[in-house]
């Protein structure tokens, strides 16, 4: 075999590994949302507004530092970005309500029906054929989530938390699929800055009608949520969509509940069950399989 071709293949594999590591780091940062969302003692819309306002500031400063072009090219692009921003806002608010209604494990795990939803919806958005492998892996994730979930009592708030979490998953899938059309034209950082800047304006009225009396005591955690989870984590995830399909990135991202449950154990004393370990192992298996499969593709 030609040495030049071998070097090219090796370079491509190294690039794939680099992009995969980047996606996994972004996933780790986004995973902090579960613990922070449960811990921060503020009304949910207020948390999301603070997250967006501070995150937008961090990202704007970063874009100026890196001299990124932050101009939106057309009205059509703005309309699409605005729509995806609304889905992101509803996703975040409903996800944090799910965390408050139940716990970190249930809130995060119900959200992670989104790989299945994404795999089913993606062909409708980008006119690709439905990939049976994504459906199979998505179903394995769903089985893992089913095993992880405790027995539900329809009269308590846990089931409500799960249902709200699944609705949040639908919004998250739609937001990612809408953004997929624009990641080639704009940087992931710019897209994230546009979205949370829009949400800062849309959610501003909540700051005048909700109780924010203890906001000063919550600033360190809100800043952490805005910088680590939002500005850095989500920008890395959006950037990864240039190199992976939404379905691939979503399935790899399914490691989030495992990371979130581990964090909840150490920081919130939420103790996982054996079902958590077994179901989590299934989810982790799909992450490894998809990582290997996408490398060979």
Automatic annotation (TrEMBL):
<feature type="transmembrane region" description="Helical">
    <location>
        <begin position="20"/>
        <end position="40"/>
    </location>
</feature>
<keyword id="KW-0812">Transmembrane</keyword>
<feature type="transmembrane region" description="Helical">
    <location>
        <begin position="46"/>
        <end position="65"/>
    </location>
</feature>
<feature type="transmembrane region" description="Helical">
    <location>
        <begin position="191"/>
        <end position="213"/>
    </location>
</feature>
<feature type="transmembrane region" description="Helical">
    <location>
        <begin position="133"/>
        <end position="149"/>
    </location>
</feature>
<feature type="domain" description="EamA">
    <location>
        <begin position="23"/>
        <end position="148"/>
    </location>
</feature>
<protein>
    <recommendedName>
        <fullName>EamA domain-containing protein</fullName>
    </recommendedName>
</protein>
<feature type="transmembrane region" description="Helical">
    <location>
        <begin position="274"/>
        <end position="292"/>
    </location>
</feature>
<dbReference type="GO" id="GO:0016020">
    <property type="term" value="C:membrane"/>
</dbReference>
<feature type="transmembrane region" description="Helical">
    <location>
        <begin position="250"/>
        <end position="268"/>
    </location>
</feature>
<feature type="domain" description="EamA">
    <location>
        <begin position="160"/>
        <end position="289"/>
    </location>
</feature>
<dbReference type="Pfam" id="PF00892">
    <property type="entry name" value="EamA"/>
</dbReference>
<keyword id="KW-1133">Transmembrane helix</keyword>
<dbReference type="InterPro" id="IPR037185">
    <property type="entry name" value="EmrE-like"/>
</dbReference>
<dbReference type="InterPro" id="IPR000620">
    <property type="entry name" value="EamA_dom"/>
</dbReference>
<feature type="transmembrane region" description="Helical">
    <location>
        <begin position="104"/>
        <end position="121"/>
    </location>
</feature>
<feature type="transmembrane region" description="Helical">
    <location>
        <begin position="77"/>
        <end position="98"/>
    </location>
</feature>
<keyword id="KW-0472">Membrane</keyword>
<feature type="transmembrane region" description="Helical">
    <location>
        <begin position="219"/>
        <end position="238"/>
    </location>
</feature>
<feature type="transmembrane region" description="Helical">
    <location>
        <begin position="161"/>
        <end position="179"/>
    </location>
</feature>
